[in-house]
Amino acid sequence: MLPNFKSNKVIGLIDKYTGKIKVVDKINIILTPSYYWMKRAFLEVKFSSSALKYAPSIFEGFLPEGDYAYYVVKSKKEFIFFAYNPDEIISSLKKKGVLASQIAGIYFAQNEMGDIQAPIQCNKDDVIVLHNETILQVKKYLVDESTMKRSLEDIKQLSKHKITLHKSSITHSVKELTPIIASLAALIILYTVQLFFTYGQLNIIEAKPSVFKEYKLPSTFIQNTSIEKKLRKSFKAQKSFRKLIFSILKLPLSQRQRISSLSYEKEEFTIAFEADNYARLRDVELQLRKDLGKLVKIDINKNIMKVKIR
Fold first, then answer.
1. Which residues, at least 6 apart from 247, have a Cβ–Cβ distance to it below 8 Å?
2. What is the pLDDT of residue 70?
3. What SS3 string covers the chain?
4. Which residue has better confidence, 232 or 199?
5. Which of 53, 90, 260, 257 is nearest to 166 (CA)?
6. pTM for this prediction
7. First-to-last CA distance in the chain?
8. N or C: which end of the chain has fewer CB within 10 A?
9. Spatial distance between the Cα atoms of 177 and 50, rounded to a whole number of angstroms
10. Calpha distance 216→10 (Å, rounded)
């Protein structure tokens, strides 16, 4: 008989070696250690987002051959590093009959089962146990079966440490990103064309007086100086706008940071970022301030940051 998850957004413990399961509505999946590798390390950095770049080195020579993604959690004074193979997890869940549309979230057992009071069975041969603040998957015969549980009743609430099953730095799907990409492309083309014509007009103004007549420009120096100032101002604004566009495109967003909205109105560019915590938004803020300086006005409210650029 298949395990049956009936209620909306239930929590299910899924192991690599279990068979098919039946899911109704949505399920929050907790992956057993059979799906991931874990290491602890002390680093001279403050945030998990800063520690993430060290993950490949932490696991170097430790992982089987494959294409891995990484996740980092700060725990007291140390960092807990996770390595996992997104393609392998996706394939495994698909074989078990779990559709992507049925998944509310995916979590690691290490981050969700730190309060379990007894061994929890995860397949016919193995159980999950807590030992020295680490979740382990061990053989069932190593524990007292009379204390073993089959449910996740000790887990009252899931953490914020939800993982993604792709390695893109932006957590939008291609479908979600299409309008934003199209808008950015259109704006770049528009301003490149305007920049070209403005630059051409600027060259005309700076040329010899003989071109005034040829291009039917005003004959007085004051009028031409006024036009030159306007063109220079427009030229400078358009260069700044191009710098802004490329600064956004090159932002090193992590797996848990994303662009949620983007708009341009009345010469003001507004872009909203989302992340799972304040520290990750601060990373984006610092990068934008480094690239754009005083051009940006930034407001952070909980896990959403709005950036206005004129």
1. 288, 291, 292
2. 93
3. CCCEECCCCEEEEECCCCCCCEECCCEEEEECHHHEEEEEECCCCCCHHHHHHHHHHHCCCCCCCCCCEEEEEEECCEEEEEEECHHHHHHHHHHCCCCHHHEEEEEEHHHHCCCCCCCEECCCCEEEEEECCEEEEEEHHHCCHHHCECCCCCCCCCCCCCCCCCCCCCCCCHHHHHHHHHHHHHHHHHHHHHHHHHHHHHHHHHCCCHHHHHCCCCCCHHHHHHHHHHHHHHHHHHHHHHHHHHHHHCCCCCCCEEEEEEEEECCEEEEEEEECCHHHHHHHHHHHHHHHHHHEEEEEECCEEEEEEC
4. 232
5. 90
6. 0.53
7. 62
8. N
9. 26
10. 75
Residue with tokens 């893109």: 168
Length of the chain: 310
132: left (phi over 0), alpha (psi -120 to 50) or beta: left
**How far is 166 from 269, CA to CA, in rounded Å?**
29
Q: Where are the domains of the chain?
A: 4-147, 174-309
> Is residue 260 a contact partner of residue 272, using CB atoms and an 8 Å limit?
yes
